[in-house]
Amino acid sequence: MPIHLSAKKRLKQSQKAKLRNKAIKSNLKSLIKKVKRSTDPKEAESNFKAMQSLLDRATRFKIIHKNKASRQKEKLAKLINQKFKT
Fold first, then answer.
1. How far apart are CA 69 and CA 32, in angstroms?
2. Which pLDDT value is given to residue 86?
3. What is the pLDDT of residues 35-62, one digit of tens each?
4. Can you tell me the distance from the alpha carbon of 48 to that of 25, in angstroms, rounded to the nearest whole number?
5. What is the DSSP string of 29-80?
6. Distance CA 84, CA 76 (A)
7. Which end of the chain is more exposed for a tag (fewer CB within 10 A), N or C?
8. CA nearest 35: which of 60, 58, 52?
9. Global confidence as pTM
10. The pLDDT of residue 73 is above 90
């Protein structure tokens, strides 16, 4: 355990950030699964837009790397296009 006051404060801050980051990553994983499992094109599109916005938010707060976000968006867009191609 930290002894100095500033170290104690930093520990609290990092624990709060860890919980916040974990929640965002968990939501992101859930949305990705929803996009992959969707059977209706409109449902897939709405889930994809929500996932994109959450990816952008996670990137903005440096929870995930911007290249990873870009790669996931492209991969899921390709999957949706193949799945619902008419």
1. 12
2. 60
3. 999 999 999 999 999 999 999 999 999 9
4. 16
5. HHHHHHHHH--SHHHHHHHHHHHHHHHHHHHHTTSS-HHHHHHHHHHHHHHH
6. 12
7. C
8. 52
9. 0.82
10. yes
Residue indicated by tokens 């867009």: 77
Q: Write down the residue that tokens 């599109």 correspond to.
A: 45
> CB neighbours of 41 closer than 8 A, spacing ≥ 6?
80, 84
**Structural tokens at position 25:** 């990553």
The pair of structure tokens assigned to 2 is 């930290």
Q: pLDDT higher for 24 or 85?
A: 24
Query: Could you tell me the CA-to-CA distances from 8 to 14, 18, 34, 70 in Å, in that order?
Result: 10, 15, 40, 37
Give residue 62's region: left, alpha or beta (phi > 0; psi -120 to 50).
Answer: left
The single residue listed with the structure tokens 């619902």 is 84
